[in-house]
Amino acid sequence: MSHIGNKIRAGYFRTPDLQGEYIKSLLSFTGDVACFDPTCGEGMILEQLTKGIEEYQVKSFGVELDKRRAAEAADRLDKVIQSPIESMVISHNVFGLLFLNPPYDHTMIGMGDEERSDRKEYTELIRNTRYLKPNGVMVYI
Length: 141
Prior knowledge:
Number of strands: 5
Shape: globular
CATH superfamily: Vaccinia Virus protein VP39
Radius of gyration: 15 Å
């Protein structure tokens, strides 16, 4: 059973800035790159990971379900779509950096599912891995 606070926040828990600084210290870009966060929230972490790169063209893309958070992310990232990630059509093998901090919860049980639900973080891992280009980097929180 999910924690009620998780449901109220729609599974949204922002990655702390300090953790972002640590992750950025581990990354090095060796050419132009497209970076993607499929649950970007307000876009803060992807902005933190991609800003200040002068020698290469680094583009940031995000998807966010919540309208207010998507609007905030649109001010920080190159392109943001406010939509459920499940409804997006995204090319496979295109992003050099994939940042995943998915909701940690159970999927909803639908008609005919016979009381079976999956973990959202596993579902998001499987779904989003296909967007990562060969030799790309995935950061998974």
